[in-house]
Amino acid sequence: MASVSTDLNDPRFTAFGLFAEAFTGLTNRFAAQFEEHRLSSVEFEVLMRLARSSGRRLRMTDLAGQTSLSTSGVTRVVDRMDRDGLVRREACPSDRRSSFAVITDAGVSRLDEVLPGHLELLQQWFIGQLGPGQLDDMLESLRTIRDAVNPCATAGTTEAAA
């Protein structure tokens, strides 16, 4: 049997492994709560991005850059959410090839239903696990990494809303 020449105890493996395990654990805890409100995690992410954006809308391409979805994936999700009345599409007046996704009043209402429980989960399993200063340090670190690997993540919005 051939041996592995790389140090499997390399702290880079540990750092990413811990990040992935934490993300997966949080995602699993959030999923059940989203389902109670008839939303997928992706739909929640879309509603949050739109609600936190100027004019409560984003170009479809900017929404793709800010989410875990491809451009075609965003189109499918927005079309489904449009049928459910949570978002609507608007033509871009300055570019006929582009359109906006806009959160509707029904989408805002659905977020209003979800957010109290979601904030409780965030506090219990995420923010509440961190001591003073750790959250600020983590946010700074995550923004640095996000900006390197996904420079389009803040397209169409301000950093404060990202």
TrEMBL record:
It comes from Paractinoplanes aksuensis. SMART domains: HTH_MARR (SM00347). Pfam families: MarR. This is MarR family transcriptional regulator. It comes from the Bacteria. Residues 1-147 form the HTH marR-type domain.
